Amino acid sequence: MADGAESGQAGVVAEGNAPQLSKSAKKKLLKQERQAARKAERKAGEKERRRADIERRRREWEESLAAAPSQEAREAMLAARRETRLERVGKRVEERGARAERLRRAADGAGQKVVLDLEFADLMRPNEIHSLTQQIMYCYAVNGRSATPAHLWLTGCSGEMGTQVQRIPGFDKWIIEKESKSYLEAFADCKENLVYLTADAETVLDELDMSKIYIIGGLVDRNRWKGITHKKAVDQGIQSAKLPIGSYLKMSSSQVLTVNQVFEIMQKFVETKDWKTAFFHVIPPRKRGEAGAANDDDAPEGAANEDLDECLEEEANDDDGGDGDEEADVANKRHCIRSENGKS
């Protein structure tokens, strides 16, 4: 989904005899470069803080163990540590089982059907495909935490897109529908129930209908492909609709959101039956206008990262071992997935 094609012009960097960038395009490009540099710097700082925290905890534990007055005291400390870890592992297993049961009930008909359309991979750059992969992870994490999860589908999950999602830790165990074919093929017998969610639609979505199948376009387009999802819906003869954002807040820029933001808004609406609550919970303060400025506490920007962190932590090794080793494993998995996204 996209609003405006100006960034597409900005992306044409002068090479050889290519025309020079306009003044506005240069300003836009410089702004994007500054934002990318700040993002990379922030990510590097976060990574270093995580490493320092893991090292601090390990060092404090070793110092406490070394300071024990006797061998018996050290053994008691080790036993208590193992017991705490076993309790934590047991709780994680219990929570994982409860989440799996909720997702199975959703797949059996209790959940709202939501499709992530992954047929746009050929229009995206490699770093954008990586960004979309991370957004899919956010969606799955949010869905797993929800008391009323959706019946989530990935369609068009083939080619480069299929390769990337297969690299997600634990993807083969996800309780989610994975289709290499398109949603038109997957839902050929109920095409009349398909509704493509796009910011360019004329119809405003007031309620979520359990009989409908809502499609979210998996496109990280950097504003190069204005109106492409709406055009796709029109060409295919299926319904389209947009979220009622304008009725509840004034956006500081466009009303185009990321895939995971759209999905989380839908999940929050299912939970609260209140669009305003859903929007303010999910949409970052930086994207809101005046209406959002007074309610920044309602939408912490770190929510998506917390969901991803929890999703990755659940894939950590459950064998006995030190807390520092487990945290290092989680940090390594997080880094493997995010490292290339630092360029996006």
Automatic annotation (TrEMBL):
Q: Acidic residues bias located where?
A: 295-329
Gene Ontology CC: nucleus
Q: What protein is this chain from? A: tRNA (guanine(9)-N(1))-methyltransferase
Q: A single Gene Ontology molecular function, please? A: tRNA binding
Stretches with biased composition (Basic and acidic residues)? 30-62
**Which terms are listed as keywords in the entry?**
Methyltransferase, S-adenosyl-L-methionine, Transferase
> Catalyses which reaction?
guanosine(9) in tRNA + S-adenosyl-L-methionine = N(1)-methylguanosine(9) in tRNA + S-adenosyl-L-homocysteine + H(+)
Which InterPro entries does this one have? Answer: MT_TRM10-typ, MT_TRM10-typ_sf, tRNA_m1G_MeTrfase_euk
**Where is the segment annotated Disordered?**
1-79, 288-344
- Show where the SAM-dependent MTase TRM10-type domain sits: 99-290
What parts of the sequence cross the membrane?
Answer: none
Give its E.C. classification number.
2.1.1.221
Which source organism? Hordeum vulgare subsp. vulgare
This protein's superkingdom? Eukaryota
GO BP annotations listed: 1-methylguanosine metabolic process; tRNA N1-guanine methylation
